Amino acid sequence: MRAVLVVFTFALALLLYIDRVCISVAKSDITKDLGISDEAMGWVFAIFAFGYALGQLPAGTVIDKFGVRKVLTGIVAIWSLFTAMTGMAFNWLSLAVTQFFFGVGEAGAFPSIARSVFSWIPLKERGIATGINFSGSRLGAAFAYPLLAGLMVTLGWRYTFFLFGALGLIWALVWYLWFRDMPEQHPWVSEDEKEFIVANRQPQSSTQKKSELPMSKLFSSTNVWLTMWQYMSSNFIFYFCLMWFFPYLKKTYNLSYDQAGFLMMAPFLAGALGNYLSGFMVDFIYKRGNWTMSRRLPAILGFSFSVLALLMLPHQTTAVGAVAWLSLAIFGADMTLSPSWSFCIDIGKSKSGVVSSTMNMAGNLMAAISMVLFPVLLGKSGSPDIFFYIAALFNGLAIVSWVFMQPKKPLFVENI
Q1: CB atoms closer than 10 angstroms to residue 28
Q2: Which of 56, 343, 363, 385 could be stapled to 357 by a disulfide with Cβ–Cβ 3.0 to 4.6 Å?
Q3: Domains of the chain by range and CATH?
Q4: Helix or strand or coil: residue 190?
Q5: Rounded to the nearest 5°, which phi and psi values hold at 361?
């Protein structure tokens, strides 16, 4: 049944990123209908990221306190309602407000997935499960462009938002009916599988009083600050790809909408491949007895690919060249996701929701900065080169972070 859990969370990641990319694909229709400039839309993108970042820590705390089943059901229902409400926007302010709360609603999705992985997935399967989950987000982004373009021609942008809001509500209902916070509580999990999971997962607190994780302890941890920085570096370039690369590619290389949309699939498919590869590497190395290197090596290798690609991007003169090198950058950046989230579960244990939320909060604050910084640098210098060099520097510093990160050093000792 743990495979069914991964199918559920993969589908959620797929839906999450289709919902997220929806506004980027609809940008031209929205700006035309609501009379909004491209610069104002850039701030809408950033407001979503700020909402997503600010919702992380509260979401993680609530997840660890009340459990994944109830909280994730509510989270998906909330963001799905605001997805539908985006289709009702009538001016810039109404659009910005719905996107802010859409971001807040989405904030707990991946921390909830991380917490469910801690309870349901054995340590030696954690890497591939996390890699599969994040590949769903990349495949969602990759196929969102042609899918949403067709839907918006058929239904219009408003009804497209209504449709995906309804799909999210259906997922939330099915999840609540099927999932249980612990596999021991699930009537469909066989006794053999329960015994296997319990014997091979990290120890869980079995006492009445749960272990506490004060904020002072969280933010005094070197491990936490290092994982926050490396995730900020990864998100800096990924969110450029998610929100700005499409209009940059189309304008710089004089491409049609269809041409740019087709090319946009490549970086996200490369990201999915990076997730699968690093997930396999994490589990392969762990099973051979090296817990620390199972997290460290895939992440360092991924950031190294990303640095190389980002240094090459400014020298490209064709759209295919730019897409190829950005695809390598996203491949490398996404190789860091499985080790990053596995690391949060390693050191956070039963508080992995709040630890992963803290990392994700930092990453999405950097995403918001990235989405505002790119058009500013492009406008002032007339070239994106400075942005790419900054991204390469950040990714290089992330390699240094991973050298010092210690997955076998938990934030606290569980009461078991």
Answers
A1: 14
A2: 56
A3: 2-404 (1.20.1250.20)
A4: coil
A5: -60, -50
